[in-house]
Amino acid sequence: MPQNKFEHVIIVGGSLGGLMMGLALSRSGYTVTILERADSSLRNGAFIRLQTKPYSNSEIERELRHLASNGNNNVEAWSAIQERLRNAVAKEPGITLQHNTRIVSVGQNESSAWATSEEEQIFKGDFLIGADGYRSIVRRYLNPDKPFADYAGYLVWVGKVDEELLPKKDWKKRQLSSAYFNDSAAGTLTTAVMPGIEGEPILARDGLVFAGLIIRIIICCLN
């Protein structure tokens, strides 16, 4: 099928990659259906830093990079970025985001591609994109000889702690308002701020600004 005839896109996976891809395609004129296996609750347990500098002069890229990064280079909770992207998706008339939809198989022929859910519902489009993680159903279909991503040899422990429980001497030294890395032979300790119960930034002790009450700690231990 000629490229200029493509109209409807199916995206398997509705986390950061799937949401960003859906927004980019919708703003390029496509109708998009995003299929996410999880419910609508936001993901916990990770944080990420997004670069604000675009790689090209594309207006869509600049808009989406600013949306995802919130205009800064700080480390943010995965859930905060995900929430912004979902809010943007909800305002796009060309995007349908469907939760609680576990895809069990995908396929294609000369005219279309499709995804089949656990409930045997078929979602058909002009083409299909896999954004469904390291155990990707789409990857398994396209590359059955290597269906999963390779294990890189790292083990990650994730936890979170109330800021009031942290030693006062560590607040300014570690600059927890952005990110802190402490490398050793045992591994790497990384901290960053995540939204707390209220979800609004507050002025913390020693003049540091935190986005809520909780700090997420990630310990990456070499295997």
TrEMBL record:
Cited InterPro entries: FAD-bd, FAD-dep_Monooxygenase_BioMet, FAD/NAD-bd_sf
Q: Give the protein's recorded name.
A: FAD-dependent monooxygenase
Which segments constitute the FAD-binding domain? 84-143
Which SUPFAM superfamilies does the record match to this protein? Answer: FAD/NAD(P)-binding domain (SSF51905)
Q: Name one Pfam family in it.
A: FAD_binding_3
Give the molecular function GO annotations. FAD binding; monooxygenase activity
Keywords carried by this UniProt record: Monooxygenase, Oxidoreductase
Gene3D superfamilies listed in its UniProt record: FAD/NAD(P)-binding domain
Organism, by scientific name, is Paenibacillus polymyxa (Bacillus polymyxa)
